[in-house]
Amino acid sequence: MITSLSIENFALIEKLSVSFSDGFSVITGETGAGKSILLGALGLVLGKRADLNSLKNKEEKCIIEAHFQIKNYNLKSFFEANDLDYEDETIIRREILPSGKSRAFINDTPVNLNELQDLSNYLIDIHSQHQTQELSDDGVQFQIIDSVASNFDLISDYSFKLKEYKKSKSNLKSKSELLQSVLKEQDYNTFLLEELLSANLKSGEQEELEVQYEKLNNVEFIKENLVKSLALANEEQIGVLENLKEIKLSFQKIANFSPEYNQLFERISSVLIEFDDVEKELSQLSENLFSDPEELDLINQKLQFIYTLQKKHQVNSVDELLSIQNDLDNKVVSVTTLESEIATIEKFIQEIEVQLNEIALKIHKNRAEAVPVLTDKLAAILEQLGMANARFNIQLTVKEEFYSNGKDEIQFLFSANKGSDFGLLKKVASGGEMSRIMLAVKSVLSQYSKLPTIIFDEIDTGVSGEIAHKMGEIMKSMSENMQVFAITHLPQIAGKGKDHFKVYKVIKENQTQSELKLLSNDERVIEIAQMLSGSTISDSALNHAKELLN
């Protein structure tokens, strides 16, 4: 319930602060006094879009703050889900800056408007006459009957399973489409894979083969140069080895005469050892080198196969071909894997369908049992409101499809007059009838579920006399289970309030302002008398006002 509201610099309100009690409160005032301004300010707290034109003084910010007692609303999970600090007395503040920017806070934590709107759904229901069309909405009709049927726990369980069901159906569709795509490519992929496997590729193989090919393809030229090099190295008179040995012998003779000569001797000795080793390798290479046309042909075939594969797959290396081979292998294997996954998903879908059907059946049975209870209660309340012949025919039809709240389709049929045929509520009920039906619905719901604070904004338009008296009684009865506000022009309803607030205009420093005041008992008598007879209050109006209050 809302416990207090403060408004600064909003429309015609300069500064206003008011506290509210539980139970039934009425708000009255002349047309244009500022009742709509009050609702507008409350709407901002509940997350409506801000407008810079709302500022009374365009150079100062507007602040609207509301305190709510939410201890009995089971909202801790909402606060945890939105990372907000929970307080039994929660404070919502809205600020509109002169720049036009708007800020919102829940318990001093900045929030966006979506979060504020989500929370407001649990706090206040502002109901005006034009909102009666909501009764024509299937979702609202189901909420009404499910409240009487106490179905919300079942629907919560059903919704969770339905979410899993839809997720699995979507996954099944995706896997099935993938399987069909893979199957279409299966033969081609298998061919490509077998072709790559037949190549027996190895990382680095291409480079090794290319080296071997060049060696075998130029064997005569290589042999010629190796032999020539060996001859130059081993020639008896002018060979490099013989000359190095002569140089070494010469420096060996003079090495002891100087450190420099000794160093040169050692270096020449090292060169001789190294060149001797080079000569042995040249000799070995020459001996092992021979022409092999068959091996050359095999290497050439393997290289041409690799080049063909690279061209086909548009790559430049064996490693890239191996990667493609691995992908193709996965695709070929994935058919079996996909078929197994699809079978598992199909089995899960069958199991959860059984569970959904069982829960949906329970929901339907509860609804079917609640229908006569709801229609009888609505008829009884509407009879008090001057609709003695009003009848409802609520039809539930079980369908094959899984809807968001079960498998039922609903039709709210209504007949206002004796002998009249039933018709869809939205087509046969007038605006005044819809207002009274909505009041009856809210009255019934207040007996079955913890509704948020409700504000009836001139829902009594078009009624008077005894009907107005009964509407007031119903609102007062509702206030036993919830906080109820009624903005009204009818004295019969104003007299039923536990608290009575008056909205009025005053002029201060040549500026018109709207103010809100909690009336005392004597002030209530005068206010109601004015509502009965106008600005000139007669004795009979005063007596009538006292009777209404008593």
TrEMBL record:
GO terms for molecular function: ATP binding. One of its GO terms (biological process) is SOS response. GO terms for cellular component: bacterial nucleoid. Pfam families: SMC_N. Keywords: ATP-binding, DNA damage, DNA repair, Nucleotide-binding. SUPFAM superfamilies: P-loop containing nucleoside triphosphate hydrolases. It comes from the Bacteria. Residues 1-507 form the RecF/RecN/SMC N-terminal domain. The keyword Nucleotide-binding applies. Gene3D superfamilies: P-loop containing nucleotide triphosphate hydrolases. Belongs to the RecN family. May be involved in recombinational repair of damaged DNA. NCBIfam families: recN (TIGR00634). This is DNA repair protein RecN. It comes from Flavobacterium aquatile LMG 4008 = ATCC 11947.
